[in-house]
Write a structure and sequence with these properties.
Elements: E1 3-8, E2 13-20, E3 23-26, E4 34-36, E5 44-46, H1 47-52, H2 55-66, H3 69-79
Antiparallel strand pairs: 1-2, 2-3, 4-5
Length: 80
Amino acid sequence: MKEYIVWQVLDQKINWFYLDQGEYLDLIADDSGILRSQTFPGLWLAATELLAGNMQRVLAILQVGLQSNEHTVFVQTLAA
């Protein structure tokens, strides 16, 4: 498994881990607070918004990621 997400409901915390040289490391959010998958380009999660229950914003950020150039290239690679 290259990546996995842990949602700690009681602690109101989300961690996204990725595998790097046999060790799982914590994925750090960008300056906008968005977690961006390293395995699936364009898969973006606004963790703070998810924890706040702002699903419209979560889905809007996801759509931006899915419309990104990096996601387009990733999908083209899969189709080849």
